[in-house]
Amino acid sequence: MLSICIPHYNFPNPQLFASLLAQCQSAGLAFEILIADDGSENNKKRYLSDLNNQYFRIFLLEHNHGRSFTRNFLAEKAMFPTLLFLDGDAEIISDDFIKIYLTAKQADIVTGGRIYGATPTSKDYLLHWRYGTQIEQNANAQFQSNNFIIKKDLFKTVKFDENIKTYGYEDVLFGLEAQKQGFKIQQINNPVKHLQLKTNQQFLDDTDEALQTLAKLIYNQGEFKLATEVRLSAKYCWLKNRGVTPFFNIGTHLILASLRKALLKNPESPLWILALYKLYRFHALAESYKE
Hints:
Elements: E1 2-8, H1 14-26, E2 31-38, H2 42-45, E3 56-61, H3 67-77, E4 82-86, E5 90-92, H4 97-103, E6 109-111, E7 114-116, H5 126-136, E8 147-151, H6 152-158, H7 170-180, E9 185-187, E10 192-194, H8 200-219, H9 225-229, H10 231-241, H11 252-265, H12 271-288
Helix pairs in contact: 8-12, 10-12, 11-12
């Protein structure tokens, strides 16, 4: 018995729901597919009304509540003891996607991973795609929230932190809390394809917001375990312990503006420029909490 839980926001993706329906029916499962739209524009969610058969349960949230709230909401509404969470911008690329999860050696939490598609035809989306293909899909992250399966009773003891209203790092915090409670996380080769690419501008804006979230969690809310578990903040702490970070105060805003301009002008720039941009941005945020 399986409840498939999908947060949905401004990205029409009927093929995802059709693929899941076909695979679950083929497997002879007792299942349901829950979709919670988190305040999408009307023209981006109207098609959900077509999913009016017995297998789908659609929830239209009036306002945008964020990813933590929406995932917790779906888990609360789910009827079955096993939950499969997928992001709404995923594509199922294996005909055995559901079967692989059902036959996997079950740890407490099993994650399937993600991949990215072919090079985008427009350079406007190149920065996100390059980061996704070269960094994100190859990262050895213990937990990724875009594609994972978990027992409902276990999920209820961890949950996503609804205090995180902004973009980023709620998944890292979830994974750390699960490990703290002694739950085992297993990674298997059962990826979905990430479909929704952001423009270069949107990607950098979201990067800024995620770094703001990370800095707030560490320096304002006392989530110090994130400082060593997130690669960026761990590197920053390493540099700080060696007395290097004061040098970041020299021309910080000018350097940030120059790095951002370089990335937008040429999204094929080496990704170390993006890494340096993130390091300087995080330093500026960390310093702001001293004031």
